[in-house]
């Protein structure tokens, strides 16, 4: 049985159309305004970059705030310890010792926040891998759709020898 190259091309075309439709549907779900076929992949890549930038920015702000609070808590803890040693009032000493214990607990919680921000690094790595994958997918799609070296059997509208028209047939047609 002879393979039909036109059928293979049609199947390929349908597959590409299905991918484009799926990408378009996904972009619409993500809130896009219906990008055209040429911008679907670029739009996805831009969204991933945006997510990565926002995540990194938020993590940076969180770390900066947590580190500033940690420094303030350490300073207050040291001052409370110094004042506790200078006071003779048992009530003030008890308050300052309680304040030191609370500062120590808060410092531990801030350390947890700082360590939890490691997720941003992991998110960033995953997003960067996705960006590389999307870029490769876009490059491969472009390469498939714009092939500089087409199959010589697909050089014209007729692909089977039995269907080719000779110059004599054309001359006869135009009389």
Major sheet details: none
Mean pLDDT: 77
Q: Unreliable segments (pLDDT under 50, ≥5 consecutive)?
A: none
Share in helix = over 70%
> What is the chains' assembly state?
single chain
Distance from N terminus to C terminus (CA atoms, Å) equals: 38 Å
Number of helices: 5
Question: Taking Cα atoms only, what radius of gyration do you get, to the nearest Å?
Answer: 34 Å
SSE string, helices as H and strands as E = HHHHH
Number-wise, the strands total 0
Strand percentage, roughly? under 5%
Question: Pairing-aware structural class of the strands and helices?
Answer: mainly alpha
Count of domain modules:
1
Shape label:
rod-shaped
Helix and strand arrangement:
Elements lengths: L4 H25 L10 H47 L3 H27 L1 H28 L21 H8 L1
GO molecular function: catalytic activity
GO cellular component, one term: bacterial-type flagellum
Protein name: Chemotaxis protein CheZ
Describe the structure.
With 175 residues, the chain is mainly α. The protein has five helices and no strands. The chain has one domain (8-145). It has helices spanning 5-29, 40-86, 90-116, 118-145, 167-174. This is Chemotaxis protein CheZ. It holds the Pfam family CheZ.
List keywords for this structure.
5 helices, mainly alpha, rod-shaped
Concise synopsis of the structure shown:
The protein is an all-alpha fold. It is 77% helix and 0% strand. The mean pLDDT is 77.
């Amino acid at each position: 049985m002879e393979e039909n190259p036109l059928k293979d091309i049609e199947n390929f075309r349908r597959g590409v159309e299905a991918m484009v439709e799926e990408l378009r549907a996904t972009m619409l779900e993500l809130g896009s305004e219906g990008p055209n076929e040429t911008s679907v992949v670029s739009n996805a890549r831009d969204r991933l970059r945006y997510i990565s930038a926002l995540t990194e920015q938020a993590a940076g702000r969180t770390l900066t705030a947590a580190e500033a609070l940690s420094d303030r808590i350490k300073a207050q803890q040291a001052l409370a310890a110094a004042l506790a040693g200078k006071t003779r009032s048992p009530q003030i000493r008890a308050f300052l010792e309680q304040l030191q214990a609370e500062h120590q607990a808060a410092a531990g919680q801030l350390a947890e926040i700082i360590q939890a921000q490691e997720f941003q690094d992991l998110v960033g790595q995953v997003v960067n891998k996705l960006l590389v994958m999307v870029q490769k997918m876009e490059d491969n799609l472009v390469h498939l759709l714009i092939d500089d070296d087409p199959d010589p059997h697909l050089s014209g509208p007729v692909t089977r020898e039995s269907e080719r028209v000779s110059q004599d047939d054309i001359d006869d047609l135009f009389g």
